[in-house]
Automatic annotation (TrEMBL):
The protein's name: Beta-phosphoglucomutase
Organism: Mucilaginibacter glaciei
Pfam families on file: Hydrolase
Cofactor(s) in the UniProt record: Mg(2+)
Superkingdom assignment: Bacteria
UniProt keyword annotation of Cytoplasm present: no
């Protein structure tokens, strides 16, 4: 029986993937190469520095020092935050706000479990902070998904046992993290990609409380 819902942010509550993509693309282009939207899929749920490493690999760039990598990641984040600083609640994905509210009305606890260090900014811009009992993000975890740390900390903050938690995730690494943490996983996206999930829906607009009971 589900007592808590833990939501990934990017790709589940809001579509920030397009902003991440634009900022990383600009960075790559500045170094003289490009990458595809399909390669961009591999960046979903992946931390900032791990994303940079993947992108540098795609560009066959092997000579960057740690300091230079730090500067590149900072530059990307400046471009990214320029874009998210003008986001509005209109950019909340269809049905997301409604589903979180229906969970709360039913007495379920709600939390965010995201790899993003920009989570507080995004939740504030979207006026969603009051909808979550706990927010665990890239500022409070040391081990990235697929390690379950972000969701385990979420369950602890909500004081709900892992087995009674369900995680909503659009990234393969996030589904793996939920399963590894002993939680149920609902995939947001395509069943072909999110094979390990207990259930896959195209978006939270397709999700109902009744479906939680069948997990
Ligand atoms: C989420 C996104 C990733 C992003 C990561 C870190 O998991 O899906 O694309 O790289 O967060 O985000 P940040 O805002 O800390 O750079
Ligand atoms: Mg995501």
């Amino acid at each position: 029986n589900i007592q808590a819902c833990i939501f990934d942010l990017d790709g589940v509550i809001v579509d920030t993937a397009v902003y991440h993509y634009k900022a990383w693309k600009r960075l790559a282009n500045g170094m003289g190469f490009d990458f595809t939207e399909q390669q961009n899929e591999q960046l979903k749920g992946v931390s900032r520095m791990a994303s940079l490493d993947l992108i540098l690999g795609w560009g066959n760039i092997t000579n960057k020092t740690d300091d230079e990598k730090e500067q590149l990641a900072t530059q990307k984040n400046e471009w990214y935050t320029d874009m998210i600083n003008t986001m509005t609640p209109a950019e909340i994905l269809p049905g997301a706000r409604e589903f979180v509210l229906s969970c709360r009305d039913a007495g379920l606890k709600t939390a965010i479990g995201s790899a993003s260090k920009n989570t507080p900014t995004i939740l504030t811009r979207l006026e969603l902070l009051p909808l979550f009992d706990a927010v665990i993000d890239g500022n409070s975890v040391s081990k990235p998904k697929p390690d379950p740390e972000v969701f385990t900390k979420g369950a602890e903050a909500l004081q709900v046992a892992a087995a009674n938690c369900v995680v909503f995730e659009d990234a393969i690494a996030g589904i793996e993290a939920a399963i590894a943490g002993g939680m149920k996983a609902v995939g947001i996206g395509s069943p072909d990609t999110l094979k390990q999930a207990n259930l896959v829906v195209s978006g939270l607009d397709k999700m109902t409380l009744e479906m939680l009971e069948e997990l």
